Write a sequence for this structure.
């Protein structure tokens, strides 16, 4: 029964990484800490027998997207002087925690009062490329198609917002 | 084919605009093209009104409910396009892209009202939101960069609301094992005493509270309204709110099994929205900020209509949001026509408007009277019926608080009317921009709808009741 142990270990790692993302002052440290979260999440997906999602999480998120973020941070070459002043940091943190505590308690209460004790085992073939593909192109065809338009919006939007202004001063 | 025609026309229109954006189109030709395309969208949505069926393996449901909302979305968009000045507010080099994002945003909203599957709802909502985030930031740079701040704030709050929604969806998916609303309704029937199911549904609703600007998810409103170009604000104030109301009706109808606790929670949010919106609006100088806060209080009334968890309550919510969209569009029509250069207006800018343009002054006055809830306009009828409905269900205290709010609201709405009618022009020597026939036509049409919906609400309520009947 190593599964619960693994689950708690990976969850803890994911939370530690997320907290690190918020707490580290330098973006580079924060990004590396974020990578920890992404890899821990990949482990959680693996525990759920979602093999394809596990692989995608590692290759796309922990691999491609993280290296993109790291490249951008390196390009910007951020010095300690460039970092914003965060003097009220702890007050904001405490205020946010106080505001979110009731919500967290509500969620915990909701989860604890669930009567489900056991979950059925995943059917054979669950989480493989074929199974995910079948679901993606039948039940979830509509969201899949809308995402293609969403990507167009993101692409053109990035060009419009970041593109050079003609006659502008920036 | 006709089932999906309005969406296909919108998609085609946005691709045409994308192609046009690669060249250097003239503003006037671009505007005529957009007017033609939007009219086409409106006509096809009317044509598809009576369609019935499902698409995409049951994830996309076409019925009178969704089709009615598509007509409403298309007509509100057409109104915004007709009265928006040809340029001025938007960066000149990206005008074609601006209209492309407008079309894609409308496409997202139309897909949203037809989606009956959680992932499709999420992606369609994101599609419409991202297009609007970018539209906000495309205001001409004369505005000192507040448009970037506005776009950023809109994005960050939107992402937070989306995170809540996804979290809630994960709960619902975990509990019922399906993302299809029809399966979820069947599954929730067995789970009515599970707090987790309720929490999940409420977290999904948060995203639509954010779109409709209900307290405490309203923080983006004042800055986005002020920072976005006038025509963008007009769009944000009317069109996404119609779609958000549609989805709120759909989702609230799903949780009606155990109304008591949810009703109390929604009641607090509704009354909170009314007080927050009205009290904040009292202190505003900028007209768009004022209308933003007034929108928060009207969102409270829409939510209040939903609390009865009955068919006539949902029909009233639909009636109220349509009325609100028409009234707000009438006010924004005046704002847009007065500012061909796209600057922001203060209340004093309306001084002596009745001398400069009687029609615009009349439109503004009737729009504001209706928003304030003065008979015989739609705002009065809507508020009256919402309060009457609440009273019948025994929410006496909430009804009294809402009535106090309508009294507060009269003060700030009428202060604008006072500026337009009771002040002489000496303080404002601005030349009156020429009005096109399209603007006069739109304003007369909006006025007719405001008065007709207010004087004879019965046929409109019957239509909305039949639409609601299709999803219950």
């Amino acid at each position: 029964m190593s599964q619960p142990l693994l689950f708690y270990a990976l969850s803890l790692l994911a939370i530690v990484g997320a907290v690190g993302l918020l707490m580290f002052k330098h973006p580079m440290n924060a990004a590396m800490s974020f990578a920890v979260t992404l890899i821990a999440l990949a482990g959680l997906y693996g525990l759920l027998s979602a093999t394809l999602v596990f692989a995608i999480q590692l290759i796309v998120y922990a691999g491609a997207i993280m290296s993109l973020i790291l490249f951008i941070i390196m390009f910007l070459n951020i010095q300690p002087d460039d970092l914003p002043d965060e003097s009220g940091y702890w007050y904001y943190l405490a205020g946010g925690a106080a505001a979110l505590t009731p919500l967290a308690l509500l969620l915990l209460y909701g989860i604890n009062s669930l009567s489900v004790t056991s979950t059925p085992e995943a059917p054979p073939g669950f989480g493989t490329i074929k199974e995910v593909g079948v679901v993606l192109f039948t039940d979830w065809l509509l969201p899949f198609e809308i995402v293609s338009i969403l990507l167009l919006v993101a692409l053109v939007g990035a060009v419009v917002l970041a593109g050079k202004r003609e006659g502008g001063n920036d | 084919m006709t089932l999906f025609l309005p969406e296909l026309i919108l998609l085609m229109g946005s691709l045409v605009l994308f192609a046009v954006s690669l060249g250097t189109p003239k503003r006037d030709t671009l505007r005529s093209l957009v007017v033609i395309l939007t009219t086409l969208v409106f006509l096809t949505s009317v044509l598809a009104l009576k369609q019935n069926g499902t698409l995409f393996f049951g994830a996309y449901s076409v019925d009178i409910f969704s089709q009615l909302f598509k007509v409403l979305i298309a007509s509100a968009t057409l109104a915004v396009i007709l009265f928006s000045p040809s340029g001025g507010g938007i960066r000149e080099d990206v005008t074609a892209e601006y209209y492309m994002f407008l079309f894609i945003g409308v496409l997202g909203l139309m897909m949203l009202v037809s989606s009956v599957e959680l992932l499709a709802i999420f992606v369609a909502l994101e599609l419409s939101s991202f297009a609007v985030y970018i539209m906000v930031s495309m205001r001409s740079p004369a505005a000192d960069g507040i448009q970037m701040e506005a776009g950023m704030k809109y994005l960050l709050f939107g992402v937070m609301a989306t995170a809540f929604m996804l979290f809630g969806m994960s709960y619902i998916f975990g509990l019922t094992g399906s993302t299809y609303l029809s399966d979820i309704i069947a599954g929730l029937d067995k789970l009515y005493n599970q707090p987790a199911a309720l929490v999940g549904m409420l977290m999904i609703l948060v995203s639509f509270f954010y779109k409709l600007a209900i307290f405490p998810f309203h923080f983006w409103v004042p800055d986005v309204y002020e920072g976005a170009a006038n025509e963008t604000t007009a769009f944000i104030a009317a069109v996404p709110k119609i779609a958000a109301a549609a989805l709120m009706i759909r989702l609230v109808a799903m949780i009606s099994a155990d109304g008591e606790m949810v009703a109390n929670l929604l009641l607090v949010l509704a009354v909170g929205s009314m007080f927050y919106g009205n009290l904040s609006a009292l202190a505003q100088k900028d007209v768009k900020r004022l209308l933003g806060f007034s929108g928060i209080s009207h969102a409270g009334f829409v939510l209040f209509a939903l609390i009865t968890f009955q068919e006539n309550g949902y029909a009233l919510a639909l009636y109220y949001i349509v009325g609100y969209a028409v009234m707000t569009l009438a006010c924004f029509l005046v704002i847009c026509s007065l500012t061909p250069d796209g600057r922001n207006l203060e209340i004093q800018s309306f001084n002596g408007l009745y001398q400069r343009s009687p029609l615009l002054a009349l439109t503004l006055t009737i729009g504001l009277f209706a928003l304030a809830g003065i008979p015989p306009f739609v705002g009065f009828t809507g508020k009256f019926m919402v309060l009457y409905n609440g009273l019948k269900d025994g929410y006496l205290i909430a009804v009294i608080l809402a009535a106090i709010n309508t009294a507060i609201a009269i003060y700030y709405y009428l202060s604008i009317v006072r500026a337009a009618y009771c002040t002489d022009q000496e303080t404002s020597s601005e030349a009156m921009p020429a009005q096109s026939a399209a603007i006069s036509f739109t304003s007369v049409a909006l006025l007719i709808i405001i008065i007709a919906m207010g004087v004879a609400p019965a046929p409109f309520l019957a239509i909305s009741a039949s639409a609601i009947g299709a999803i219950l």
